[in-house]
Amino acid sequence: MAALRPLGGLRGKADRRPASPPIPVPLSAYVVNCGVYRDGERLPGRWTHGEAITDVREHGSGFVWIGLHEPDADQIKGIADTFGLHELAVEDAVQAHQRPKLERYDDTLFMVLKTVRFVEHDSPDTTNEIVETGELMAFLGKDFIVTVRHGNHSGLATLRSELDKAPDRLQVGPAAVLHAIADRVVDSYLEVSEKFEDDIEEMEGRIFAPRSHVSSEQIYMMKREVLELKRAVTPLANPLRRLAEGYTPLVPEQVRSYFRDVDDHLTTVSERVTAFDDLLNTLVDATLAKISLQQNTDMRKITAWAAIIAIPTMVAGVYGMNFEYMPELHWKFGYPLAIVVILAICLFLYRIFRRNRWL
């Protein structure tokens, strides 16, 4: 046993060693894409963020578009230092869970947009989620735009490919990219609201169908999803309006008119979402009224059967008192007569309740 003691001591020393620090994740793991654009055309090659902005500023033209996916504070720090991003905006971009907003920090704009995706399902009665949300943040400068994405459904790869094929749009500068992102997000609002409307119409038809059973929990679930969509749509109106009205020189005049168009589309979505909210309030009231009516019908049936059952219970209770002198107690036809009387009274009550639609 003495020979085993050194091993135990070595194991104890190993257990007391400090935990190794986490392995740092390189910035390239968070950078989805980094491109340099000049005269609307994307320059070939792979770029780091430092090389890209250096090339743009040395030539005095073009801009950089960097896309990040859920970076942490340490990983975004290098980009923030290179592009001069404000620490408060950087903190919001890392933490996410922000309301749609537009803020100006010196020569940089910071914009937050909520992204939404319709969760496909067979029926609104069986699903627990209809709208999935994410976030897109954008830092806009005179020669760069940095986009930060949170969520797996808000990718910009398709949009980037479309813009790469439209150099006329990108000649304006990074503000054109910000408009394209806002336009794509608002278009997704329209798509989701159209599919949501189909679900509401289906639920409405089921609620007002005769003898249908609809759970109020599903209506409340749809109400919750509409509120989620409303929190993404409504706060975005003010930022878009400010961009369209010349809030900053970073957005040139030719781009402001496009933001006005996006704002018009957002107004359409906002009105539709408000209508959904009002309609669901009506459906909630209708569902509760229908449930209350069903409960009243059940109570009437229970009351009717209780009244019918009370007759034989009363007769049995009277004759169960075992008094010696009771009417027809020693008559041989007393028992059959009592049964006939009970059945006759029960049948009479049944017909009355049936005629009054209690049964």
From TrEMBL:
From the Swiss-Prot or TrEMBL record, state where the protein is found: Cell membrane; Membrane
For membrane topology, the record states: Multi-pass membrane protein
Reaction equation(s) it catalyzes: Mg(2+)(in) = Mg(2+)(out)
Keyword set includes Cell inner membrane: no
Q: Which domain of life is it from?
A: Bacteria
One MF term in GO for this entry? magnesium ion binding
Where is this chain primarily localised?
Answer: membrane
InterPro entries linked: CorA_cytoplasmic_dom, CorA_TM1_TM2, Mg/Co-transport_prot_CorA, MgTranspt_CorA/ZnTranspt_ZntB
Segments traversing the membrane: 302-321, 333-353
| GO CC annotations, alphabetized | plasma membrane
Keywords, comma-separated and alphabetical: Cell membrane, Ion transport, Magnesium, Membrane, Transmembrane, Transmembrane helix, Transport
This molecule's function is given as: Mediates influx of magnesium ions. Alternates between open and closed states. Activated by low cytoplasmic Mg(2+) levels. Inactive when cytoplasmic Mg(2+) levels are high.
Query: Which family is this protein grouped under?
Result: Belongs to the CorA metal ion transporter (MIT) (TC 1.A.35) family.
Mind telling me what this protein is named?
Answer: Magnesium transport protein CorA
Q: Which organism is it from?
A: Actinocrispum wychmicini
